[in-house]
Design a protein that fits this description.
Oligomer: single chain
Strand content: under 5%
Order of helices and strands: HHHHHHH
Number of domains: 1
Shape: elongated
Helix content: over 70%
CATH superfamily: Formiminotetrahydrofolate cyclodeaminase monomer, up-and-down helical bundle
Radius of gyration: 19 Å
Number of helices: 7
CATH class: Mainly Alpha
CATH topology: Four Helix Bundle (Hemerythrin (Met), subunit A)
Length: 207
């Protein structure tokens, strides 16, 4: 069963178990997925009231972006666990002959790239979410301000958690071009941290 098809209780108990996956990467993706859901809710609560008509355009655009990001982040919850399982399976491959050793090494290299690519994409998507939020900051139904603030924190948690998963897997990526690409996640995280701090600060000041 996919993680996203579990009940909340079932998912949490699976994370809480001694199984190595799902772990931080899946949790990070889910955190940002919840950020998308919260911003969509805030947009709908704004679009439902004509007195906020001046905000409709930005809310509609932000909601559309959140729905787009939601689909990818939602898939990332299971993609991260799947990527980890491929790494685990690769290390268990036989190495009794030179041919088998070569096949195992190739599988490990490929699996490590996949295990780094998935959280890297989570960082990217989380940053996109915060950028979209910034455009909507202060232009929504203020009764949902706290929800907007929690959404910013959710994206930040997703970005930070995903970066840790990129960093721990990066040594297993032997291709220098891919290493350079994945290392850019640190710069994306810095921008995400700045945006989240700005959005959260604005929300807190408005309460």
């Amino acid at each position: 069963m996919k993680l996203v098809d579990m009940t909340v209780t079932g998912y949490l108990e699976t994370v809480m178990s001694d199984a190595p996956a799902p772990g931080g990467g899946s949790v990070a993706a889910l955190s940002s997925t919840q950020g998308c859901a919260l911003v969509s809710m805030v947009a709908d609560l704004t679009l439902a009231k004509e007195k906020f008509a001046e905000y409709f355009e930005v809310c509609e655009a932000t909601k559309a972006k959140m729905q787009e990001l939601y689909k990818e982040l939602y898939a990332g919850v299971d993609n991260d666990t799947d990527a980890f399982m491929k790494v685990s399976a690769a290390y268990k491959m036989p190495k009794d002959t030179d041919e088998l050793k070569a096949a195992r090494s190739a599988a490990i290299r490929a699996a490590n790239v996949g295990a780094t690519e998935v959280p890297f994409h989570t960082v990217e998507l989380s940053l996109e979410g915060l950028r979209a939020m910034k455009a909507m900051a202060g232009k929504f139904n203020q009764n949902a301000a706290s929800d907007f603030g929690v959404a910013a924190l959710s994206f930040l948690t997703g970005a930070r958690g995903a970066w840790l998963n990129v960093k721990i897997n990066l040594p297993g990526v032997k291709d220098e071009a891919l290493q350079a690409k994945f290392a850019k996640a640190e710069d994306m995280l810095k921008e995400a941290e700045e945006l989240a701090a700005e959005i959260y600060g604005e929300v807190e000041a408005s309460l």
